[in-house]
Amino acid sequence: MSTEHKQQSRPFDRLTATAVAIDQPNVDTDQIIPARFLALPRAEQVPHLFNDVRYREDGSPREGFALNAPTAKGAQILIAERNFGCGSSREHAVTVLVDNGFRVFIAPSFGDIFHNNSFQNGALPIRLPAERIREMLDHLARRPDASITVDLESQTVTGPDNWTQSFEIDSFRKQCLLQGTDDISLTLTYADAIAAHERRAAAECDWL
Amino acid sequence: MAEAQGATAATMFEKIWRRHVVVDRPDGYTLLYIDRHLLHDGSYNAFRRLAANGMKIRHPERSFATPDHYMPTNTRDKSTIADPNHKRMVVGLAEHAASTGVTIFDIGDRRQGIVHVVGPEQGITLPGITLVCGDSHTSTHGALGCLAFGIGSSEVTHVLATQSLWQRKPKAMRVNIDGPLGFGITGKDVILAIIARIGAAGGTGHVLEYAGSGIRQLSIEGRLTLCNMSIEGGGRAGMIAPDDKTYEFIAGRPYAPKGEAWDRALAFWRTLPTDDGATFDREVTLSGPEIAPMVTWGTSPEDAAPVTEAVPDPASASDAARRDGQARALAYMGLEPGTPIAEIPVDRVFIGSCTNSRIEDLRMAAAVAKGRKAQIPSWIVPGSGIIKEQAEAEGLDKIFTEAGFEWREAGCSMCVGMNGEIGRPGERIASTSNRNFVGRQGKGVRTHLVSPAMAAAAAVTGRFTDVRRLLPA
After folding, report:
1. Residue A143 and residue A195 share a domain
2. Cβ of A33 under 8 Å from any chain B Cβ?
3. CATH of the domain at A52
4. What order of strands is seen across the sheet that includes strand A14-22?
5. Do B438 and A52 make contact, defined as CB atoms within 8 angstroms?
6. Region for A22 from its dihedrals, namely left if φ exceeds 0, alpha if ψ lies in -120 to 50, beta otherwise
7. What value of ipTM does the predicted structure carry?
8. Residue A10 pLDDT
9. Contact with chain B for residue A46, Cβ under 8 A
């Protein structure tokens, strides 16, 4: 195992930004980026975020879709309903959001693979209670230009009405995000433990 | 006595997890060892990233590759792939496999197929192992009693480099199917009934173990179908305790143990099933005899109902969010509230995918198609070259082609349409695949998920038909 791997991901600590609300449950990764764009080079995928719900057949923006509102420009936070990012494991769903400027996703729950993929790309997925999400979505419907602050160190989200809500995050993932550590660099420090496991397993299950 | 048992009783998930812990960190994260790893043409980028970072594959002999997503299913000639980006994925996979020593079942090799069909078929998938793949339907493999789950592309690179993954231990949930399944009921109907009950996020954060007499009754093919769609119920993984059916299925497969190693493996595998008295974080029970042939009516796999029922009326939904969701789904699907499912006309049929493209699936579909005529364009896409050969040896291809079905080559095809095989906007497809998401089978396409038998019934009648009326008794 090479120990020269030093790839760092972008650290995350604190962010104040506007938000885009995707007010629907079960938004799957096929909707975030349809399959026909997945073979494109990453840079060419960027305009296709939510492509089929965002644009009409002729390519013109569909009115009423949150990302097409003028206030969506510069938004770095995405707020969604339950089970956001469910379905296909395609990591492009996270990278296309990140490449469109989003660094924080807030929802009552996420698809497990999307949740994991977020951390791999320096993005922070936050689970908040459904009632709090409802309040935020209702508030954003009235005031789409409202700012939200996310502080990873103190694990808090501060909303436009100045309420503050704490959130849970694995301390492992928190430290990796704060320091911009990527998993492979960390794992390489455990090379001896992996080798020891392999010796043990080879003795126990010699048919593998 | 009971207490003492309870203290040591473990679930199958717990037993497999424990054996694969490399490091347990105080912060609750585990470095988990990965025994076997599957790659497909969509994994090309992870391969490329590894090479770009100058890293080596730690154990090339533990990874196996086969192209499935991007290869067209009307040809076996890679040079005919029109889209250069698609061709790069298929050709690039083979090039990286060749230069790194990873085993590949490439186009033209009879062992090529959908990665989740190939793993069990080759004996790569075995009880008690950890297995991952950069594809959410990796949950399929748990049907043989292993811990198998889908990962993202960065994690694929991580597994290639380190043969391990950082994981937070999921919770465990048991889904019991009590009592025998009725005539004509398949693994597909069972999993759709489960997802309709627990919801598309019902298993989030959990590994699902399926148990009970209704599960034991299922063939290995049926169990693979069931575990395949665990992800559609939000589950991290799905698993079923190995039994004699499992061992019989595995015996003699190319990468399975043989001779004395088989005996040692078998002795170990018999220790895997969940102990009596082990506890789960959640438990759900469905009645086996009550499960009917299922059809999805909406745009989430949780929108499933028996073929004998009608699509719901949003007006009678329990809350506003549900009402809006149902109304949006019905608008996309072009369905009126309250329409009996058996009155919905179908435009096209797709039988295939990692969910339902195995030999038993094809036999079931052929039993319905035999002596009848497809009323609408209907495709059969076998899960692997070996399944295709076996079906042809059994004469199933003749039954299908005489009934007007199209008999194609192995691949993912119209389940996800990455290879360009998609439906037309507004087209209504009865599909044996796993996702009825908006646009999944092409922009504006309306997907209804069904079993292979129900798909064949739709093909020969042009609408959803209760297959129990068409199957030979």
Report:
1. no
2. no
3. 3.20.19.10
4. A124-127, A104-107, A77-80, A14-22, A147-151, A156-158, A164-166
5. yes
6. beta
7. 0.95
8. 83
9. no
